[in-house]
Write a structure and sequence with these properties.
- By secondary structure, the protein is of the alpha+beta class.
- It has a single domain, classed as 2,3-Dihydroxybiphenyl 1,2-Dioxygenase, domain 1.
- The protein has five helices and 18 strands.
- A hairpin with a 2-residue loop joins strand 9 and strand 10.
- Keywords: Metal-binding.
- It comes from Halobacillus shinanisalinarum.
Length: 283
């Protein structure tokens, strides 16, 4: 993993907050299957970490929570970025040992495994290929969806076994269902993100610092897809980490200039994209 994409002067995803139906079931899954450590836990909320210090994921069980709603905006998946390919090999073997149902793709820029949590929230676990090997055409990075060469990845193993998420794991990106792309692109552009790749009229990928994507956006749940109800399982919010107060202030001004509201709650700035996805703007 190349650290520069997740430090100043870039803006990147810090952590993700999810709603689930049964907290204990989800804590078990995120600990035993994904490999998170529990930073803190109460009756209805748990804070999860890879390094025992930094929160990457918060899961919460609201009162009267409802199952995930189809064909709405919200989470497509959040993506856990491992430090290197060896760690991906360890995870792949761990998933295989536990008969975990998986999707898998080679995207040229990265190699990725896909699965769902017990509530149907989408998760990607991936490692990046060196950015020096990424192919650029007309200022867009070339990404594909090819089958993953699982045997080649497992060839990285030399007897090492999985021990949970390693130190150095970060929230690599978030991929969202949105109701349309044009206003959404404009919105994230004002937060400082540039389009790095487009998939026809259905999806686009945005980042800072020429990463392959910190944010993915698609209309696969349907153009005009409504926001899910507040009680639905799924995304509560995600945070964007800005390099400075000044950079965050500029982003706040720019989205307000487009007519979007930015609220301040307990010192945290919160806004919503055009599809009602909630974003915490942090530094």
């Amino acid at each position: 993993m190349e650290q520069q994409f997740f430090e100043e002067p870039n803006t990147f995803v810090g952590h993700v907050e999810l709603k689930v139906q049964q907290l204990e079931r989800s804590v078990q899954f995120y600990k035993d299957t994904i490999g998170f450590q529990i930073l803190e836990q109460s009756e209805r909320r748990a804070v999860l970490s890879a390094d025992g210090k930094t929160s990457l994921l918060i899961i919460e069980q609201p009162e009267d929570v409802k199952p995930i709603e189809a064909n709405t905006s919200g989470l497509y998946h959040f993506a856990i970025l491992l430090p290197n390919r060896l760690e991906l090999a360890k995870v792949l073997k761990h998933f295989a040992n536990h008969n975990q149902q998986l999707g898998a793709s080679d995207h040229l820029v990265s190699e990725a495994l896909y699965l769902n949590d017990p509530d149907g929230n989408g998760i990607e676990v991936y490692s990046d290929r060196p950015s020096s090997t990424w192919n650029w055409q007309n200022n867009e990075v070339v990404m594909i969806v090819d089958p993953l060469d699982a045997q080649d990845i497992l060839g990285e193993l030399e007897g090492e076994s999985w021990g949970g998420l390693p130190v150095g794991t970060v929230m690599g990106h978030i991929h969202l269902h949105v109701s349309e792309l044009q206003k959404t692109e404009e919105f994230y552009n004002k937060l400082g993100f540039d389009v790095i790749s487009r998939l026809g009229q259905q999806a686009l990928f945005m980042s800072t610092g020429n990463y392959h994507h910190h944010i993915g956006l698609n209309t696969w749940a349907g153009v005009g897809a409504p926001a899910p109800s507040k009680k639905s399982v799924g995304l509560t919010s995600f945070s964007l980490v800005f390099p400075s107060e000044k950079a965050r202030g500029r982003a706040v001004e720019q989205v307000q200039g487009l007519g979007y509201e930015v609220l301040k709650e307990d010192g945290t700035f919160i806004t919503k994209d055009p599809s009602e996805n909630s974003i915490k703007l942090s530094v």
